[in-house]
TrEMBL record:
Listed name of the protein: Hexosyltransferase
Pathway: Glycan metabolism; pectin biosynthesis
Membrane topology, as annotated: Single-pass type II membrane protein
GO MF, one example: polygalacturonate 4-alpha-galacturonosyltransferase activity
Amino acid sequence: MKVRHIVLGLLSISVIAPIFLYTDRVGSFVNPSSSRRDFLDDVSAFETSTALKEPIGVVYSDHSTVTREHKSTRVLSATDEERQQQQLYNPIRQVIDRAAPGLTTTLDSHPNASDISAIELEQQPTQPSGKIVQEHSDNKHDRLTEPADAQVRHLKDQLIRAKVYLSLPAIKNNPHVTRELRLRVKEVTRALGDATKDSDLPKNAVDKLKAMDQSLEKGKQIQDDCAAVVKKLRAMLHSSEEQLRVHKKQTMFLTQLTAKTLPKGLHCLPLRLTTEYYTLNSSQQNFPNQQKLEDPRLYHYALFSDNILAAAVVVNSTISHAKHPSDHVFHIVTDRLNYAAMRMWFLSNPPGKATIQVQNIEEFTWLNSSYSPVLKQLGSPSMIDYYFRAHRASSDSNLKFRNPKYLSILNHLRFYLPEIFPKLNKVLFLDDDIVVQKDLTGLWSLDLKGNVNGAVETCGESFHRFDRYLNFSNPLISKNFDPHACGWAYGMNIFDLAEWRRQNITEVYHRWQRLNRDRQLWKLGTLPPGLITFWKRTYSLDKSWHVLGLGYNPNVNQREIDRAAVIHYNGNLKPWLEIGIPKYKIYWAKYVDYETVYLRECNINP
């Protein structure tokens, strides 16, 4: 009997002691004013429970991240049976299983899983509710700032997956799923249409997206051969890359073709003007102020062009920003076909008080093949073969050089400025695809420090340097020039003609042209021989004088455009062509008076 009492006493101590230990922690959650009866009721409840369950905080799941909020507390040990029951009924694990399946398995499989759980719960800091709210608000912000084409991309991805599934044997053998997927493909394709952003999609696009997801899930359950899916995706990728290569080649060819093609309106304009010019008597065909043509105190511009409208924009934009228009003289040189039309345009549309001279290149009798190597080369059989033989059309490498402008001597007149203007000391050379936005007279007062050419450099970290234009595998080039030397731009160049004559620059140009008769030093064009001719003779101008890229780059910095004295439409996307970049056309079009009778008759519109 004594033994029995002793055993019962020990049992009561072993049962009640943990209860009192546990009540130390429970007390912080119980109202201090609660009665002893309530306390005993609580004790009874604990005694009848199958296991002592530790109060654990709420679990929040955000994607794969699980955040626990828990008060620091002492962890009670439990038997294996009790731990299994806790895992079975634990709402935390249910939440984890839903948010990140496999996570509980990974934790349970760890040899010290119980110790890890206890330590994590013990050391996890309390997370303020405000932080949780902040996380939810951040998630909401992320959803609000998702890409504008998120749904469009999702629909396109669905189409790719559906096409992959439809090509797999397991799906083909299931007629029901095949029909369903084909139907979904048609629906999604119709909903997608030509949309590029989510706002372009129809209202039922979300329903189509959900329906496709369900069909794809069915296909996923049937198809379990990952190797076949990967193989098909690789084949599709290869096919897409090949199609992209073909389309790029076609785009390049068509762009070059469009750049070389004269629009109907611009073809009509010189014909209409030429007809009108020859109705004038000889006295009406002359320009005023011809005494200013050789006055070195004035501001002289050289413009070589066969494009009447483009030349008009250059003159109009320059005069619009000139402080003293009467001091500006424009020397325009054109070919025989456009000579009468060019004169007629400026006779009927005089540029205010500025002086105009229009010359015919045929009048330069000194410019012949015996004097100019390039003129001799342009008429050679090898050059004609290079441009016009059909077998050359398939070559990408020379496609951009197959442009008539490279055969035009007008393009090479820039190397003969002292001969064209023998009494002038400085001339500003302008291309016909530029627009002037500021007064340019400051260029004449620049000290070029003994250099002949003032130009804006165009090199970046690895582009527009000499090795992009010259053949440095040839020893003549590699011995005389630096492949990393910075290139510069034609289009707006101030030339010191006095220094040009003193250094005999034209002869330097001729010597290198003779060396390049087989085009082994550089391809065609005027920039490569310009880089060579004016090597170590070019003064670098501030970049704000001349901003390039408006004829090929839709991402030219807007601030640079606004600050520029001259903007240049270099490239194939000229502003007078339909393929011109729309947002840049406005800078050019505002200097064209589309109400002019000749433009209306030729149906030339903005």
